[in-house]
Amino acid sequence: MTRNAQELRAQWSSLRALLKERWTHLTDEDLSVLEGDIDQLVSRVQQKTGEAREAIEAFLAGVTARATATIVPYAQEAGDRLRERIDKAEDLVRQKPGPSLTAAFGCGLAAGLILGLMIRSR
Known about the structure:
The protein is built from six helices and no strands. The chain has one domain. The protein is mostly helical and 122 residues long.
């Protein structure tokens, strides 16, 4: 499976609207049956529109490239912020191990009590 095919499958639900906009002949049923199968999608579009396979694949490659260009920076930024917060939490635990251990124990105890009460109430 090519990288574009993998990206299309991963983004299938959000791409359905773009596909229907580009090829109005496609129905919701067509797209739900395909469920991201790129070869079937290209074949179905060819059947319904008569468009060349190369043109269809070029459109799909462009769509995935635009989606990836939009999503990747946001994902990287979110990952960076998460890494910073994890680093801060690790530093806090190193600086104050006693209070950190006490807080973790308290959270575990509270979670255990809540879970026990939920099980008991059944």
